[in-house]
Amino acid sequence: MSPYRLLRSTEAGLGTNRIGKELGVDPNVILATSHGRRTIDTLGLYDPTKANWEYVAQIEGRIPTEFGQDAKVIAGAHDILRACNNLGVPWAIVTSGTSAILQGWLEVLDLARPKTTVVAEEVERGKPDPAGYRLAQSRLGLSHEAKMLVLEDSPVGVRAGKAAGCEVVALLTTHPADQLVESGADWIVSDLRSVILLGRDAETGRVRVELREDKDARQHDEISSEA
Q: Which residues of the chain form beta strands (DSSP E)?
């Protein structure tokens, strides 16, 4: 799960206009290629001299503070995170953003804190590479055989989750359904209100999940959180 799956990706990219001006590139062009990707990877396409962590952390760290008043949390985000914590479900944020922007958004949006996070600086390759999700699985203490459910809203994020061997629920909050289907999403729902946690078996660690407004005929699945 990424913070951009907890707020709309279009809102998360509110600093793109400033970046575009600094690079001399149309912000709309940057947005078209940046959703779900690390900023450092996007910068490498336009100005490799700025593709370094110091610059990325500087520009990303300012975004929540300067544009947080305009950001909107995806409907259902607070409820699903509260349910995870109440049921003892292990969950993580796997983000293409830096630690600076992640901590900023968590504070500004008053979101529940995960047990673990994986940020852009901690993986050699960003999404769609599966390294971030595999690292999260390890940090959560889950076995390689455990089933994980990934929530994503970008094609590159969906591909990363699938490449990591996870089942992926895609949200129709940023990209059209056909792009998410093409990327391999197992299910597609409108937003996080459609993802309902029904309970967790204390002995097996399996979580019962209900998906509503599902584009796939399957309505239920069990996700294992066994270590």
A: 92-94, 116-118, 149-152, 167-171, 187-189, 195-200, 206-211, 220-224
Is the four-CA dihedral 148, 153, 156, 159 of positive or negative sign?
positive
In this prediction, residues 7-33 reach a mean pLDDT of 66
**Are 131 and 124 a contacting pair, CB within 8 Å?**
yes
**Residues linked to residue 7 through DSSP beta bridges, in sequence order:** 73
pLDDT, residue 69, reads 81
- The closest of 73, 126, 66 to 96, measured between CA atoms, is 126
User: For residue 7, which phi and psi values (nearest 5 degrees)?
Assistant: -130, 160
Report the Cα 123 to chain-centroid distance in Å.
15
Please tell me the number of Cα atoms within 13 Å of 30 on its side-chain side. Answer: 25
The Cα 94–Cα 138 span in angstroms is: 12
What pTM was computed for the model?
Answer: 0.83
Confidence band for 3, pLDDT divided at 50, 70 and 90: very low
| Predicted pLDDT at 224 | 45
Q: Is the peptide bond before 176 cis (omega within 30 degrees of 0)?
A: no
